[in-house]
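Design review, sub-item: ligand-bound model
Attendees: FS, YL, KQ
YL presented the inputs for the iron/sulfur cluster complex:
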Amino acid sequence: MLDKAEVGATFLLNSPFGPDEVWDRLPQEVQETIIRKKLKFYVIDGYGVAKVAGMGGRVNTVMQTCFFALANVLPREEAIEQIKYAIKKTYGKRGDAVVQKNFAAVDASIEHLHEVKYPDHITSTFKRLPAVWGDVPDFVERVTGMIIAGKGDLLPVSALPVDGTFPTGTAKYEKRSIALEIPIWDPKICIQCGLCALVCPHAAIRSKAYPQQALTGRPETFQAMDYKGKELEAHLFTIQVAPDDCTGCGVCVDVCPAKSKEQVKHKAINMEPKLDHLKAEQENFDYFLKIAELDRSLAKMNTVKGSQLLEPLFEYSGACAGCGETPYVKLMSQLFGDRLIIGNATGCSSIYGGNLPTTPYTTNAAGYGPTWSNSLFEDTAEFGLGFRLAFDEKQALAANLCRELASQIGDDLVGELIANAPQQYTEDEIRAQRARVKALGERLAGVDSPQARLLAGVAEALVRRSVWILGGDGWAYDIGFGGLDHVLASGRDVNVLVMDTGVYSNTGGQASKATPRGAVAKFAAAGKPNRKKDLGMIAASYGGVYVGQIAMGANPAQTIKVFLEAESYRGPSLILAYSHCIAHGIEMSTAMSHQKDVVRSGFWPLYRYDPRLSHDGGRPFQLDSRKPNMSFKELAASEARFAMLARTNPAAAEKLFEMAQRDIDDQWHYYEQLSGVQREVSEQAGKKEGVQS
Ligand code: SF4
Ligand code: SF4
Ligand code: MG
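KQ shared the predicted structure:
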């Protein structure tokens, strides 16, 4: 930033260190520039002020006030008056409490703004860290690092990949270190539920199970405990934070169920000031990463705990702190990551999924990982279906070539390769097929023919791929709906994950057909007048589409079940995943727990529609959540997207909320009928009356 400063300019820094301490916390290069350019240097603890004012981590009001106090574009008093006027105008709809908090922050900002007196020589003992550091690949050093440093425009065109392909797994080199507080683990209390790792939107807290001997040479502060559970005897267990990748969102601590009996509010993980732990946790995390991953077939992946012993292949994305979408993507990468092929819609998930210059999708130690690409908003489903068709074609071609060349390759191997191509449900089956493909490659090396070369090029297609189509509600309910409908009706083996935030989140919260009735959104300022589309039931009406509606924070076990069932179903599957979002106007640190209310109110019922169950006469639709026992009004009061309307137009809110309640009641009644609850009730009634229903 100081590159841009004129001589004598004013420099305002948001720092936890006060005017006496901050100077020595600056790197030598920064001190040098400040001295050379004779800058007027001011400091404020913006986060401290915001926190005391009850604004959490929102520092915009604080920094804006300081800017006007220093910039002299208006007389100070007048500037403050104008800021307060703007606050009232912007936040008035959110209620007086929000306005008062902002006012308090404005007043406190001036009190806590200090000028820093500095010496005329450099006193710092350290240099600035480069944009990327440590053991980084050449490309990251030369290209990615430059873009991260904000100097991408200095790169020559020749530095960029000719075909536009960027290397994956590069988000780990972008150490943003933005958290003020990070979770610190207390193994004495931990019950090893795995929830913290499951919900972390950034894969910045992880669990691992490993044999005792892996601890040789561990850092002094590295913590471990005995693994609880018969499936992994003589193993140890560790929960470890990635201190530079954690955003400090607090979601993991909020969901941690293990509380100390002696110490009030002390849990098995607790947010603590990062700077007190940074160095130790950096070392611990490096060490943690070096411990070998657990053999995938040993993890009980159908449980929360087991799923979190699998390596995430989607990590440290730049999504908002506390994002409600990324935990689903991360889970998907843990369950199927090394054979995932993803067609991604435009929207938040395409931005955090592949935001230049870094990529959160990564590979495992064997070099396998998700393949990811983003197409247009309007053709994502077709784009993803194309992956499926291409792989099916390649598989058929590979099988045919195997048959043709059987005499050279060996009948046994060919027989096994072809017989197992449609199998591969478990980790062991997939691994065995990979071994067969490897053996095939070795045998083909000795065969010199065009057919053999062709087969070598497509042999990998004999290993089952997991094709996923990802996007938000703006894509699935609106812009890409026609294509999605077509793909669901195609009967092909694809999985669709819709991360439903109920608005176009990436472009600032415009209403979509998934926006619930009564919610205030852009283009729905007076509250969305009509009902949310029931995409799940549209898909289920085909009879041959697997549909699962999930909310990780409300029922994590059901979430995992749905992912596994959807993936194992050899036809189209649709997962509708409730995704909280900053656009909902909720406290993000407790957003995962808030999902319990979202389900409890019947606003987002959990269910599975599995066509396999109807094959043997069963009922395909199963409700996984209980009858609502909380009113919609109560839920609406806890989300600003609804509460806003109640304040600005109470009469409209009253009417829309009443209708929204009726939507919930009707939908629940309908779902109960589908699940057979109603039929059982009437059958029982029929029996009592001695009539056959
Ligand atoms: Fe992940 Fe947030 Fe916990 Fe950090 S505070 S480890 S980002 S859930
Ligand atoms: Fe342990 Fe708490 Fe994490 Fe569960 S959520 S594994 S109890 S630290
Ligand atoms: Mg959305």
